[in-house]
UniProtKB/TrEMBL annotation:
It comes from Salinicola rhizosphaerae. PANTHER family: GAMMA-BUTYROBETAINE HYDROXYLASE-RELATED, TRIMETHYLLYSINE DIOXYGENASE, MITOCHONDRIAL. Converts trimethyllysine (TML) into hydroxytrimethyllysine (HTML). This is trimethyllysine dioxygenase. Gene3D superfamilies: 3.30.2020.30, Clavaminate synthase-like.
Length: 381
């Protein structure tokens, strides 16, 4: 890897220019010093810093910089010497591209339960699909109340809430409570009143309805992208207005706050919140509320649009894993002539899921790849 290296003149040795064939990066000398990859500075096993970065001299400078094979050799004004692998300076590791989708998505991401249990390669393929699309359908899940747990255990602990671990989502033909009825459910994200919000929803089907009862999925990132393009004022409003969400019963009082569309420091959408039942917008000035209500209506029109909605029906032994920061889910109304529509739902947090994916990617690269088994046609969904 050939590059151009120069300690930038007139910076007193405090800036380094590194130029590749396609781009140029400037590095602060103190940044390089505190990221020095030697065993005195960073723990070789964990990468944790062993020195106190805040105690380094603010005027630390570079006195020598040159390329040696696939490393960059640096000497600092405090006498420290370091060799940076050029690959580490070239940029962050590749990320899984998040594919925004709508109702035209021709193939759903799928995984096989037993293969994901037995094979790290299959598990990584499942997790990469989950990161790419925001959901994955898992087939072959045991028809047991705790059927999902062997796969959960491959990632990390089940997230427990005030409802326990895995909760029943059950409807019966002769319902006596609203939660057990056969009505449809509007698109929503789960539990925006929690801190942190659960990262992934695991929804395992034990039995389903005679007709209807299809899951509905909408890509919140696609909806936000379209809102940004078609109604930029509404997009700005929903990213800037802080909304409270609340759940309260005899044993719990849960509240949290955030915008319906959340951006990162680079302006990219990283989370959507939408839950009509628990939203509690504060009594903001009337003109602010008027703008918010109009923007929320436009966003709602998108997330309920047939053009953005998938309706996969879960059969017994199938499970959906959904990104609760991205996916809005619901269900169509259904009809039961007899029996019970019974699904089981649990949550797994984002940190353990991401850690497992990134660790497997590092351990298995470059041999894992998404094969033909990773998708299914809409006709067979």
């Amino acid at each position: 890897m050939e590059l151009y290296v120069e300690i930038i003149p007139d910076t007193d040795g405090r800036q380094l220019r590194v130029a590749w064939h396609d781009r140029e990066v400037r590095y602060h000398a103190l940044w390089l010093r505190e990221h020095s990859p030697d065993a005195e500075t960073l723990d070789p096993r964990t990468g944790q810093r062993l020195i106190e970065a805040a105690a380094l001299p603010l005027d630390i400078a570079l006195v020598e910089a040159r390329q040696e094979s696939e490393t960059l050799r640096l000497v600092f004004s405090d006498g420290h010497r370091a060799r940076f692998p050029l690959a580490d300076l070239a940029g962050p590791p590749p990320v899984t591209e998040r594919e925004r989708w709508d109702a035209s998505l021709s193939a759903l991401p799928v995984a096989d339960f037993d293969r994901a249990i037995d094979s790290d390669h299959a598990l990584l393929d499942m997790l990469e699909s989950l990161e790419r699309f925001g959901f994955v359908k898992v087939r072959g899940v045991p028809l047991e109340l705790e059927g999902m747990m062997p796969l959960v255990a491959r990632l990390g602990p089940l997230r427990r809430t005030n409802w326990g671990g895995i909760a029943d989502v059950k409807s019966i033909a002769e319902a006596f409570d609203l939660t057990m009825t056969q009505r449809g459910l509007e698109p929503h994200t789960d539990n925006p009143y929690r801190d942190p919000i659960p990262g992934y929803i695991w929804l395992h089907c034990l039995s389903n309805a005679d007709s209807g009862g299809d899951s509905t999925l909408a890509d919140g990132f696609m909806a936000a992208q379209r809102l940004r393009r078609e109604h930029p004022d509404a997009f700005d409003c929903l990213t800037q207005t802080q909304v409270r969400f609340r759940y309260r019963d005899e044993e719990a009082h849960l509240e949290s706050e955030g915008p319906l569309i959340e951006l990162d420091s680079a302006g990219r959408v990283v989370r959507v919140r939408y839950n009509n039942r628990t939203e509690r917008i504060p009594p903001l000035p009337p003109e602010t509320l008027a703008r918010y209500y109009a923007a929320r209506r436009q966003f709602f029109a998108l997330i309920t649009s047939p053009a953005l909605t998938l309706t996969p029906k879960l059969a017994p032994g199938e499970m959906l894993i959904m990104d609760n920061y991205r996916l809005l889910h619901g269900r169509t109304a259904f009809h039961l002539t007899q029996g019970v529509r019974h699904l089981r739902q649990g949550y797994v947090d984002r940190d353990t899921t991401a850690s497992r994916r990134l660790t497997l990617r590092r351990q298995l690269a470059p041999v894992s790849s998404t094969g033909p088994q990773a998708t299914e046609s809409r006709e067979s969904a």
